[in-house]
Every structure is written in structure tokens, then in C-alpha cells.
Design brief:
Length: 387
């Protein structure tokens, strides 16, 4: 298996980008990724591309990417895997190079969740990420779905309270203030989170990620070509993909996400590292309670230790294990197809010492998504040092 290097990364701002369509966002993200390549990048070098997108709003998705980004002479594949789409697209690009099939590939993720042209688009997106025969007809759309897990977690945990959920929101908003690409660049307080209108118990308005538009892109190359593009590549050290049952009545434990545990086990093993080696993480915090469970599933603390971890400040930039220095989904935003790719963009910058919210000495980073309703998780581990 060949080693895989990430030599370029870029993204649009995330937000309510009503003035931009998919044909605008895709070239913006790809152009920024190409411009970030230190020694220059010719798009003619790209041999294949993967496009992560949850819902097509502007027509034939792969054709739009190929047409707007000058990729008409290569194979372009669309990938959808619920909210794990972005990191799974990176995984597919990595496998393509590691296998020897291609030497240079492009991975792009994008979505237009705030698209106003059709109300149906929103409901299509919501139903695609749930079990359409059971969960969705019962009203188990995203907030209610994850609230079942968070409520059970708070019930069983000897330590966690709604205040600890609020601390996650406060932290990620604090990090988002300094990220020029973030959708919500303002501070909030624990009391504001607790006093916000209830969406579904235990989540208030500030416990929930916003709906977002945006695109992100990364360029992956084989080890022997890395020096052609940069003297400071970021290495794909490990990837993982985990699955679980879809229907909630079939889940054995609502206080953990088995797909995350499975994906983490695969990624750590492939990278030859453990949770204690991770210097910075971008994790799926579509709702605040999800980030708390992520801490435990990823091995950043022991079972029921998440409350103590967030309370201690360990997951802030400057703490023991900074989580979501970009602001996370909560403040940066969440266009599902782009989210995992954008996490890798943040880690690319972190591991090269170029992030606007830099973690000192970061050498190893982890990106994590979960979705579909808590039935799939994808993880990517990136490193500054060649494995």
C-alpha cells in the first residue's frame, strides 16, 4: 500500500450563501486548494475526482464539478454517505492512490442546504439521513434523533448535565470567532444556551448546528510525487468507516455511537497510533451532546468522563486535546457533503502551522463525522510526519 500525501486544501466560507450556487462554490473551493499548493499545481495533473454531496440541487452533480472546474477528461464519482459523506470521500480518494490506481486525485465536498428554490429539497435531505420507513414518519428528524441519545446519556451519566452541553456550544463559538470561514462568529454564554428556546429536550436553539451552504476540496498525491508539489506535505495516516443499525429500537446502548468506535479502531490501527497521540481533533458536533459522546467514543477520556473533560477546559485551544478549533459544525457550519472535507482542510492548516486558531506543536490530527441516523461514521487521521 502506497503512502498518501495531502498537498493542497481549500474551502469557501460556510453560511447562508443565497447569492452562490453550486456552480459558484465548487470552483471557489477547488481554486483555493490549488492555490495552496506551495510549488504550484496544474489541474491537468488530476487523474480522478470524488465529489461528496448529500442532495443534488443544481442538476447533474459530477457533470457540474467537471464542467466548472476544468475536469472534463477524467472520471468523477459522486459519493453520498449521510453526514459521513465528506470524510468517506477522502477515504475513497486515499484508497485510490494507496492501491496504485491513480497518482493524483481531487476530493471535493459541497452542499446547498439553504437552497431557496425548492422547499422539497430540505425535506428530501432530511428524509435521506433518516430511516424513511420508520424514523422519519414518526418525526425523528435530526434534532429529535440525536436528542434520544443525549437524553439517555444525561440520564445515565453520573456527572453530565445540560450545563455541560452548553459548555460545548460556548467553546465552539469561542473558537469560531477567529475563523474567517465560520458561519457564526460570535461569543455566547452558558446562560444564553440554557435560556434559548427549546428545540427538542435536551437541545435548545444554541445546542444545534445551523443549516449551511459551502464547499471544500483537498488534493491527494502518491508519496513519490509529494516533493513535486510541496516540501511540507500532510500525510494521510489512517482512515476508518463504521456502521450500526438504523432503527433506534434496535440500538443496544444509546449512550455511545458504535460506528464511531468501529471507525476509530480502524483508523488508529492503520495509523499505528492511539487516542493519546492526537494533538488536535475536528469532531462531529451537530448537536452539543454529540460532542460529549464523541470524546468517549474516540478515546479522549474514559466512559462518563466527557463532562469533566469539557469542564476542565482541556478541549479548548491551549488545552490537552483541543477539539474543533475551527468552531466545529456548531459555529463553522454544516453543509453535510462538505463538512468532513472541510475538517481535513482545517487539519491540513493546523499540521502545517498555518491555522488562524493554531494549536501549538500539532503533529497529528483526527477528523470525524457521524450521521444517518447515528448509523455511519467516517474518520481520517492526518499527520505532519511521514509514517
Amino acid at each position: 500500500m502506497r503512502r498518501v500525501a495531502m498537498v493542497g486544501a481549500g474551502m469557501t466560507q460556510f453560511g447562508e450563501l443565497f447569492h452562490l450556487g453550486m456552480k459558484d462554490m465548487l470552483p471557489m473551493a477547488v481554486s483555493e486548494a490549488a492555490a495552496s499548493v506551495d510549488k504550484g499545481f496544474d489541474r491537468a495533473d488530476v487523474q480522478a475526482a470524488w465529489f461528496g454531496e448529500l442532495v443534488t440541487t443544481d442538476g447533474f452533480a459530477t457533470g457540474i464539478l467537471a464542467d466548472t472546474c476544468g475536469l472534463l477528461d477524467i472520471p468523477v464519482s459522486r459519493l453520498e454517505n449521510a453526514c459521513a459523506t465528506g470524510n468517506d470521500a477522502v477515504r475513497h480518494g486515499t484508497m485510490a492512490i494507496a492501491s496504485g490506481m491513480y497518482d493524483v486525485v481531487l476530493v471535493v465536498g459541497a452542499d446547498k442546504v439553504r437552497e431557496t428554490s425548492s422547499r422539497t429539497t430540505f425535506w428530501d435531505w432530511m428524509s435521506m439521513t433518516r430511516d424513511a420507513a420508520w424514523d422519519f414518519p414518526l418525526g425523528l428528524v435530526a434534532p429529535a434523533n440525536f436528542a434520544l441519545h443525549a437524553a439517555r446519556y444525561l440520564y445515565e451519566s453520573p456527572h453530565a448535565t445540560r450545563e455541560h452541553l452548553a459548555m460545548v456550544a460556548v467553546k465552539n463559538h469561542h473558537h469560531g470567532v477567529t475563523n474567517p470561514k465560520a458561519q457564526m462568529r460570535f461569543e455566547i454564554t452558558v446562560q444564553q444556551v440554557l435560556d434559548a428556546p427549546m428545540v427538542v429536550d435536551p437541545f435548545g436553539l444554541y445546542d444545534c448546528t445551523p443549516q449551511s451552504d459551502g464547499a471544500a476540496a483537498v488534493i491527494l498525491v502518491a508519496e513519490e510525487l509529494a516533493d513535486r508539489y510541496t516540501d511540507h506535505p500532510v500525510w494521510v495516516r489512517g482512515t476508518g468507516l463504521g456502521l450500526d443499525r438504523v432503527m433506534h429500537q434496535h440500538k443496544r446502548d444509546m449512550t455511545t455511537f458504535p460506528p464511531t468506535v468501529k471507525a476509530a479502531k480502524q483508523a488508529y490501527a492503520m495509523a499505528g497510533v492511539g487516542p493519546a497521540d492526537i494533538d488536535v481533533a475536528e469532531v462531529h458536533d451537530c448537536f452539543t451532546g454529540v460532542e460529549l459522546i464523541d470524546y468517549e467514543d474516540l478515546g479522549f477520556c474514559e466512559k462518563w468522563g466527557a463532562a469533566g473533560l469539557i469542564e476542565s477546559g482541556a478541549t479548548y485551544v491551549g488545552g490537552r486535546i483541543p477539539v474543533n478549533p475551527s468552531g466545529g459544525l456548531k459555529a463553522k457550519g454544516h453543509p453535510p457533503g462538505a463538512t468532513g472535507v472541510a475538517q481535513c482542510v482545517e487539519l491540513f492548516e493546523q499540521l502545517r502551522g498555518e491555522s488562524t486558531n493554531q494549536v501549538d506543536g500539532a503533529r497529528l490530527g483526527l477528523a470525524h463525522n457521524i450521521g444517518g441516523p447515528t448509523a455511519v461514521s467516517a474518520i481520517t487521521i492526518l499527520g505532519a510526519d511521514k509514517p
